[in-house]
Structure prediction request, 102 residues.
Amino acid sequence: MNIFIAGLSFKVNDADLANFFEEYGTVRSAKVITDRQTGKSKGYGFVEIDDEEVANQAIAELNGAEYDGRTLSVSEARAKEERPRREYRDGGNRGGYNRNRY
Prediction:
């Protein structure tokens, strides 16, 4: 099961997050989400635990818990929603050279 954790301290890294959840069972992966440009934590992350019963226990016990001075929000992760793709036709109004004008 994939677990979503919000409210993480900006000092928490992947290893810290994995260690925090190891108390409940074997953690397959732990990932703190970071900003692409700065590399700094965004304050949330994901943990994968194979055993669904153990994962549900971790969610129940850790939701609202305090970790590194911050209150966590822990829940089952939802699937990422598909965003509709924009269609660009004839170059649109994106600037640049338009062959059809001249």
The mean pLDDT is 87. Strands lie at 2-6, 27-34, 41-49, 66-67, 70-71, 73-76. Residues 2-76 form a domain with the Alpha-Beta Plaits fold (CATH 3.30.70.330).
